[in-house]
Specification:
Blueprint: E1 3-5, E2 8-10, E3 14-20, E4 25-28, E5 33-42, E6 46-54, E7 60-65, E8 72-78, E9 84-91, E10 100-107, E11 112-122, H1 124-127
Parallel strand pairs: 4-11
Antiparallel strand pairs: 1-2, 3-5, 5-9, 6-7, 6-10, 8-9, 10-11
Length: 139
């Protein structure tokens, strides 16, 4: 609950809470995948996207995005309400190696929160129907 100090309303600090978590996505190679995450916190949180992978030794690795990926874009904006922020990640074009777990991670001075979603990629080249040429004279 806000407090009145002089003529300023101050809000009590609150750790981040994921209000709307990202949904898992299924699509084919060459298409695009879009994830979004909405977080509330006081002060407004910093939101980052990470891809969750495993090292050869089997430990969890969090790769901050977009990193070096030319097919990944990340955007964060304030709102839709006070002390909320919304973050998006767009993967375009989608490649088989983009498949995996993605984490929306929010942090502020009070704490942190995260939520995960899965991106499943079907390799379109594996499932294309075989090419049958048209009979002579029929096109």
């Amino acid at each position: 609950m806000p407090e009145l100090q002089g003529r300023l309303w101050l809000s009590r600090p609150e750790a981040p809470v994921v209000v709307i978590p990202p949904r898992s996505v299924h699509n084919v190679t060459g298409a695009q995948a879009h994830l979004s995450c909405e977080v509330r916190a006081v002060p407004t949180p910093v939101i980052t996207w990470r891809k969750v992978t495993q090292s050869p030794e089997g430990t969890q690795v969090l790769e901050e995005l977009p990193g070096d990926h030319v097919n990944i874009a990340v955007q964060v904006r304030g709102g839709p309400s006070d002390h909320e922020a919304t973050a998006w990640i767009l993967i375009n074009p989608l490649r088989k190696e983009d498949e995996g777990a993605y984490q929306c991670h929010a942090t502020n001075v009070v704490g942190e929160a995260q939520s995960h979603s899965m991106v499943t990629v079907l390799d379109l080249n594996k499932y294309k129907s075989p090419y049958f040429p048209a009979p002579n004279g029929h096109m």
